[in-house]
Design goal:
Elements: H1 10-23, H2 27-40, H3 46-82
Helix pairs in contact: 1-2
């Protein structure tokens, strides 16, 4: 494994440290994983990357909306069951 000197701003480092702790990994492994994910994205330009990010955000928004609808449905169903309906 090769070593590299990285210059991160304080917020980037804080977020990576936090994420590493959540995942039970070392800071270095978290950085390697983040780089691997970045390199695995098949884009050639910043515009392609921006487009991919927008599509991912829209997909996440749709998923969250569906989850919220499902939670509401389950809440209503449980409420009816508790009320004997």
């Amino acid at each position: 494994m090769a070593t590299a000197l990285l210059h991160l701003d304080a917020r980037q480092k804080q977020r990576l440290v936090h994420r590493a702790k959540l995942r039970g990994k070392s800071f270095s492994q978290e950085v390697r994983d983040a780089l691997e994910l970045y390199l695995a994205v098949p884009v050639e330009t910043e515009e392609e990357l921006s487009s991919l990010a927008r599509a991912a955000n829209l997909s996440a928004d749709r998923t969250i909306k569906k989850l919220d609808e499902t939670i509401d449905y389950v809440d209503r169903t449980l409420k009816k069951a508790r009320n004997g309906r």
